[in-house]
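User: What would this chain look like folded?
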Amino acid sequence: MANVGDRHSLRSLATLVGMSPRNLARHFVQATGITPHEFIERARVDAARMMLERGDRPLKAVAFDCGFGSADRMRIVFTARLGVSPIQYRASFRRSGPG
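Assistant: Here's the prediction, encoded as structure tokens.
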């Protein structure tokens, strides 16, 4: 999660763990039931959700920090995964007051 905003590819992840991309993909799906791409996208959505709940940073900054590349891409992924846009999510789930 600390590197969710970094650019990740199957090849770069495989290099990190000393496997071929194909072998990593196969083992990852066996262990988790999802692809590495799916995992990264879910992690990015989770990171963005936390930022939207806890702060007032512009959507463009949240999208960049979470690795979406653009606010438009984040909106597309949010709408597909959560059924709401990032703006709607923030309006509904933003924490008010201390906490």
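Helices lie at 10-17, 21-32, 36-54, 59-65, 71-82, 86-93. If you want, I can go into more detail on any region.
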